[in-house]
Amino acid sequence: MKILIVDDDAELRSHLVDILNEEGYETDFASSGKEALEKCQAQTFDIVLMDFMMPKMSGNEALKELRKHHPRTKVIMITAFASVENAVDAIKNGASDYISKPFKIDDFLTTIRRVIEETKFENRVKKLDQDKAFNAIASPIRRNILTMLSDSGPMRLMEITRELGIEDHTKVVFHLKILKEATIIEQDNERVYGLSEAGYKTIECLKKMEQILLD
Predict the structure, then answer these.
(1) Which domain holds residue 193?
(2) Are 32 and 13 in contact (CB under 8 A)?
(3) What is the pLDDT of residues 75-131, one digit of tens each?
(4) What is the CATH number for 210?
(5) How far apart are CA 201 and CA 213, in angstroms?
(6) What is the pLDDT of residues 137-179, one digit of tens each?
(7) Cα–Cα distance, 122 to 127 (Å, whole number)
(8) Are 40 and 12 in contact (CB under 8 A)?
(9) Quick one: 88 and 191 in the same domain?
(10) Residue 123 to residue 26: CA distance in whole angstroms
(11) Are 119 and 138 part of one and the same domain?
C-alpha cells in the first residue's frame, strides 16, 4: 500500500512518514498541492493524505484535480477545523474521509485502515459487476450504521456515535448525511434516524453479497 502525504508543515510530514513506515506502508511526500499532482502523474498511490489549508493551491482544489485524473486514488483530508461543512464539501469533491488536527495516532491509523477496507470492498463490488449504488455504502462506517439501525431499530445521533466508538460526532454527522442523500436512511421530526424502504433492501443486498464473498 503506497501513501502520499501532502502538507506544507515539514515537521508534520516527517512525523506521518515515520508513523506510516513503522506500520509497513510505503510512503512519499509533497509540500504543496502542485507537487502532489506532479507526483501522482509520475507514479501511482493508493491513498493521498491531503492537508485542507495550504498556500496557493488549497487541498480542496488539489483534491478536485486529483479526482479528475486519478479517480481510483483514495484521498483523506487533513484539517484543523472539525467542521461538518468542510467535511461534506470534501466528500462531495471525492474525498473518502477526513482527519482533524490534532489527532491521536491510533485514530489516524484506524482511518487509514478504514479507507483501505473501503478500497477492497469497492474492488470486490467491481468484480461482481454490482450496481454503482453499492459504492455509496463502500465506507465501513456507513455499513456499520446500517447494520446498527437494522439490528437495533431507530437511533439518535449520540446513540449511533457512542455505539460506533467515534469521539468526534461530526464524522458521524457527515456519514449520516451521505446515507440520507442516498435515501438509504431517513430522519423523523424528533431527529431519530432509521432505515428507509430502500435501506431495508440495501441491507438484504449486503447480506447476499457477504454470503457470496464468503463462499
Answers:
(1) 129-214
(2) no
(3) 999 887 656 677 777 888 889 888 888 889 999 999 999 898 888 777 665 554 445
(4) 1.10.10.10
(5) 18
(6) 778 899 999 999 999 999 999 999 999 999 889 999 989 988 8
(7) 9
(8) no
(9) no
(10) 21
(11) no
